[in-house]
């Protein structure tokens, strides 16, 4: 097994008058693809926000290896409000995630980084199109490219496939899996789509209102699948 990049230790997160989860424990390793599943409102996004250090745990912690600075995040959030009027091209939108960026004056190295991720995500043909005009699937690819442009070592996808048809879902996840396997990118994929999790993930974390289950994706039982699909 590869080295862990993060470990969640006895984690408890609570809002006023509402405990979301407690005593949560699992590790994520380099190159691991983890699917986080569970019914609506059980705490999946809350867990992601805690890993991203936007929320402070009530108890326990999230430990990064070898240290916090060594773990860089790429994040595709659950919702984004990008309407037809959105002014940036797909290419400029992707460039926004470059650190130190002063659009439109990218350095040669930055231009190469953007060219590379655009090629890797098959967006060359439409890179100059306004993002607002792109289809749902093209937008998701652009969000993925933006999350990956700085070559993070942990990619977090929060229900990124929820609005996509089956063909686009698999196309997007094929891309993610390619990065996962070729660059040892670790992936946390939050989803309600069990067939997708079963096809792409190595391990799963099933969050329940008062407990959790973690293990190899092959050990997700019929009953677990029914539990998540019934929501
Ligand atoms: N800022 C907040 N203040 C108070 N309660 C919150 C806050 N954010 C989330 N919650 C509550 O915490 C619980 C977990 O929410 P969360 O969004 O993590 O669930 P989820 O599993 O991601 O749900 P879904 O599958 O519907 O996206 C819910 O009951 C939610 O209402």
UniProtKB/TrEMBL annotation:
Keyword Nucleotide-binding: yes
Pfam families: ABC_tran
UniProt keyword list: ATP-binding, Nucleotide-binding, Transport
Transmembrane segments: none
Keyword Transmembrane helix: no
GO terms, molecular function: ATP binding; ATP hydrolysis activity
PROSITE patterns: ABC_TRANSPORTER_2
SUPFAM superfamilies hit by this protein: P-loop containing nucleoside triphosphate hydrolases
Source domain of life: Bacteria
InterPro entries per UniProt: AAA+_ATPase (IPR003593), ABC_transporter-like_ATP-bd (IPR003439), Metal_Ion_Import_ABC (IPR050153), P-loop_NTPase (IPR027417)
PANTHER family per the UniProt record, alphabetical: METAL TRANSPORT SYSTEM ATP-BINDING PROTEIN TM_0124-RELATED
UniProt-recorded name of the protein: ABC transporter ATP-binding protein
Organism from which the protein derives: Loigolactobacillus backii
């Amino acid at each position: 097994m590869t080295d862990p990049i993060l470990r969640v230790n006895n984690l408890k997160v609570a809002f006023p008058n509402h405990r979301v989860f407690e005593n949560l424990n699992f590790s994520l390793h380099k190159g691991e693809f983890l699917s986080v599943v569970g019914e609506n409102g059980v705490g999946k996004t809350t867990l992601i926000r805690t890993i991203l250090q936007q929320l402070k745990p009530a108890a326990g912690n999230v430990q990064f290896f070898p240290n916090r600075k060594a773990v860089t995040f790429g994040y595709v959030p659950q919702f984004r409000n990008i309407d037809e009027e959105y002014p940036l091209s797909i290419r400029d939108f992707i460039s926004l995630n470059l650190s130190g960026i002063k659009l439109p004056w990218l350095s040669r190295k930055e231009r190469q980084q953007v060219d590379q991720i655009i090629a890797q995500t098959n967006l060359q043909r439409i890179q100059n199109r306004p993002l607002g005009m792109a289809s749902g699937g093209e937008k998701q690819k652009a969000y993925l490219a933006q999350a990956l442009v700085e070559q993070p070592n942990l990619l977090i996808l929060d229900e990124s496939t929820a609005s996509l048809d089956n063909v686009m879902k698999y196309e997007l996840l094929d891309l993610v899996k390619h990065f996962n396997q070729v660059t040892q990118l670790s992936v946390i994929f939050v989803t309600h789509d069990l067939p997708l999790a079963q096809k792409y993930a190595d391990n799963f974390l099933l969050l329940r209102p008062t407990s959790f289950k973690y293990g190899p994706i092959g050990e997700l039982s019929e009953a677990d699948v029914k539990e998540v699909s019934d929501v």
